[in-house]
Every structure is written in structure tokens, then in C-alpha cells.
Design a protein that fits this description.
By secondary structure, this protein is α+β, with helices and mostly antiparallel strands. It is built from 11 helices and 19 strands. The chain starts with a helix and ends in a 21-residue tail after the last helix. The protein binds FE2/S2 (inorganic) cluster and fe (ii) ion (FE2). The site of fe (ii) ion has 5 residues, from loops.
Length: 405
């Protein structure tokens, strides 16, 4: 947990990073990541099965499901999934696939489902727990056990008020998966954070190009000279690696006592520490949930693959409640400012994607301050399974002694 001892040692490490002049003696040279991890369709297929269909993934916020019957369709990993608040108020998830002949049942993207809802093709009707309740022409089915024809459930669990989904029935509980990282932010009143904004944009690059961008601050000087580089110290940024591929980097403000002008007057979370007030702790929940936590709110980023050369980026803002009434005006400005920084990040993505598809791209060279990327790739291989990583495309596991347990 983030107790005083931990806070002090994290802060000390940022000072140490600022003063360090050599490559740390005990840290291995990092081998290049094979270029084919970004461009070979075999590797992409291995990721679809071994990463996206096997891990807990952020799918939404409870504010999106205010009442019984509220639903949205989640379609980020190639399967349409209905995420729904059932009659007892719990969140449940099902494949949007009719048990008759496989039609998509729900055709709207979000809204409210009745106590029962019918597939539009032949009228098979289900309740909010996915149970098959009725179907026309019963006389025409012989030997039919309707209890085997309920909608196929998908694992769905809640942390704070974030909804996570996992297509792997054998996955460990969400809380166990998150614990190595959530222990450092579960002192915050995450349950009271509202979903205040979200939008999605297409980015024409392999999804890892974008994810890696959010795992390092090495690019601050050139990509963000008048935004984040002016505010945060890249040199003093300290890195923490945790189990399950989770990690974070802690960047101190350049100026002591600096307060983001875009946050002045906004309510703060009640239990913040120096870490959220005087630093930018940017967590990445493996594989794709980027959480830069500030006392006044979190501008989270999620990256999803569309195909090998195209991604989607979600920008999702969570913030403490300001009470009744419309969102304070200052929020629009803050959201726009963050979008400008993200534009700086995505501006390089298209030319980079083209470039990494040529024979000129031999692999990814990583330095010490980019080691979160190496750690992330090690976990990717673990998730895919050693024997399923296409030949010549794996990374050598080297980080285990640097993982803080
Ligand atoms: S496919 Fe749904 S009722 Fe026939
Ligand atoms: Fe950036």
C-alpha cells in the first residue's frame, strides 16, 4: 500500500534518478525487441487469442448503466458483448449472440433492455440474466432442453466503479489480477469518481506503438516541449515494475508548489497523498489501461487493436463529484488541453507505422528509462504462452529480479 514509508522511498528514488550519471550496474543490457512483433500477421493473431481474449480489460464505468436494464455493447476485442444491469442491480455480460442460429440480438449500441428482449430474426426471447424465456412454435422443436440455450455469459467484475470484462473463463478473480498495482491507488475514493467525458479516435498504427508511447517519458523533450516537458521532470522520473505486467512511472513537477492552472477550483479526492499532489504517477494496468492520477481527476487512455496497422484510442475522464448542476466550465478547457498533448503523441504514429513496415526497421532498441516497455513485452509473451509465440519473435525474460513484489 501507499504508506508513508513507501511515499518517502518513491520520492527519494526520483531524486536519485535526477542525480544518476551512469547506467545502473546491476541492470542487464536490453536486447532489441524483434521487429516482427509489430508487422507479422502471425504475431498479431497470437495476440488476438493470447492477449485480448485472455486478460481482464476495462470495459466501462458504472455511470453508463444507471438503472436496471441499462446496457451498452462492448466490441473492443472482436466479440460483441452485451454489458447489462440485471433485475437485482448487478452487472452481467453476455455474448450478443442468439442461441438459435447466432444472430446478433441487440442491434442498438446502448440504451435500456426490457425485462425480456427478443432476437429480431425468429423471436427467441431472453431475460436480463440471459435466460431463454420463450420462443415461437414450440411444437416444432423435439427433445429441446431450453435450460441449455441461455445466452453465453462472459466474466465481468467491478473494481471501484470500473467494469472489467474477461473472455477467459479460467482467469483469476479481477481483484487478484489488479492487486499488484491497485494496492498503490486503493487509498483513493475511486468509487465516488464520476465518468465525466469520453471519446474514441482512430489512430493508424499498430496498437503497441501507442501503448509504448505511454510507457515512457523519453519522448517528452521533442514531442511535448511546451506542454508536459515544461511541467514534469523527465530526468527525475522513476519507474516501478510489478507483477502481471503492471507498472508505473512517477514524474515530479519541475517547480515546487506548481499547481495545474487547469484544475484550480475543482474538487479534489479526499484522501490524496503527496504522490498525487506533487507528482504525476502514471500507472498502466496491463495491457492497455493508462491511468495518470491527479488529485482532481484522471484522464485515462485506452488503446485497442483494430488490425495489425490500425488502433482505437479511448480517452476517458474520471473525476470527483462537484455536486449538482452541469459540469464546471473549466473542465472543457482541461479536456481540450489533454487532447492537445495526445495530438502531439499521435502525430508521429502514421509516419512511424509506415516506417516500421519497411525492411529498414530491424527491431526496437530500448534504454534503461524505457524498461517498462520491455517488462510489458515479457508479460505479453507470458500471456500468449511461450510455445505459442511465433518462432524468432519472442523476448528473453530478464526483468523478474526488478519486479517489486
Ligand atoms: S437467430 Fe435469433 S431467433 Fe433465430
Ligand atoms: Fe507523450
Amino acid at each position: 500500500m501507499l504508506d508513508q514509508k513507501r511515499i518517502d522511498s518513491w520520492i527519494q528514488e526520483t531524486e536519485f534518478e535526477g542525480s544518476r550519471s551512469n547506467y545502473p550496474k546491476n541492470f542487464p543490457d536490453l536486447p532489441d525487441l524483434p521487429s516482427k512483433r509489430y508487422s507479422d500477421p502471425l504475431f498479431f493473431d497470437a495476440e488476438v487469442e493470447g492477449l485480448w481474449k485472455k486478460n481482464w480489460l476495462y470495459a466501462g464505468h458504472l455511470d453508463q448503466l444507471p438503472e436496471q436494464g441499462s446496457f451498452f455493447i462492448w466490441d473492443k476485442t472482436g466479440s460483441e458483448i452485451i454489458i447489462l444491469r440485471n433485475d437485482s442491480g448487478n452487472i452481467v455480460a453476455f455474448y450478443n449472440t442468439c442461441r438459435h442460429r447466432g444472430s446478433a440480438i441487440v442491434r442498438k449500441k446502448s440504451g435500456t433492455l426490457g425485462k425480456t428482449f427478443a432476437c429480431g430474426y425468429h423471436g427467441w426471447t431472453y431475460d436480463r440474466d440471459g435466460k431463454l424465456k420463450a420462443f415461437p412454435d414450440v411444437r416444432d422443436f423435439s427433445n429441446f432442453d431450453r435450460s441449455c440455450r441461455n445466452l453465453v455469459q462472459v466474466r465481468c467484475e467491478i473494481y471501484g466503479n470500473w467494469i472489467f470484462v474477461n473472455e477467459n473463463n479460467n482467469a483469476e478473480p479481477l481483484a487478484d489480477f489488479l492487486n499488484p498495482i491497485s494496492r498503490f491507488f486503493d487509498h483513493l475514493p475511486l468509487k465516488s469518481l464520476r465518468l465525466i467525458h469520453q471519446h474514441t479516435q482512430s489512430v493508424p498504427c499498430n496498437y503497441k506503438v501507442l501503448i509504448e508511447n505511454f510507457l515512457e517519458v523519453y519522448h517528452f523533450r521533442l514531442l511535448h516541449p511546451s506542454t508536459t516537458d515544461r511541467i514534469f521532470s523527465q530526468k527525475k522520473t522513476a519507474v516501478h515494475l510489478w507483477e502481471r505486467g503492471h507498472s508505473m512511472m512517477l514524474s515530479p513537477h519541475r517547480r515546487k508548489g506548481w499547481v495545474d492552472p487547469g484544475t484550480i477550483g475543482l474538487p479534489e479526492m479526499s484522501t490524496t497523498t503527496r504522490i498525487e499532489r506533487e507528482f504525476l504517477p502514471s500507472y498502466t494496468v496491463f495491457p492497455n489501461f493508462v491511468l495518470p492520477i491527479q488529485a482532481t481527476g484522471v484522464g485515462a487512455v485506452l488503446v485497442w487493436p483494430v488490425d495489425i496497422a490500425n488502433s482505437l484510442m479511448d480517452v476517458v475522464w474520471f473525476a470527483p463529484s462537484w455536486g449538482d448542476g452541469p459540469r464546471p466550465k473549466i473542465w472543457s478547457e482541461r479536456i481540450n488541453n489533454f487532447d492537445k498533448i495526445l495530438e502531439e503523441d499521435t502525430s508521429f504514429a502514421m509516419p512511424m507505422q509506415k516506417s516500421i513496415s519497411t525492411p529498414g526497421f530491424k527491431g526496437v532498441a530500448l534504454n534503461y528509462q524505457e524498461r517498462r516497455i520491455y517488462h510489458w513485452h515479457e508479460e505479453l509473451d507470458r500471456s500468449i504462452g511461450k510455445s505459442n509465440v511465433p518462432e524468432g519473435m519472442s523476448v528473453e525474460p530478464l526483468m523478474s529480479q526488478f519486479i517489486e513484489r
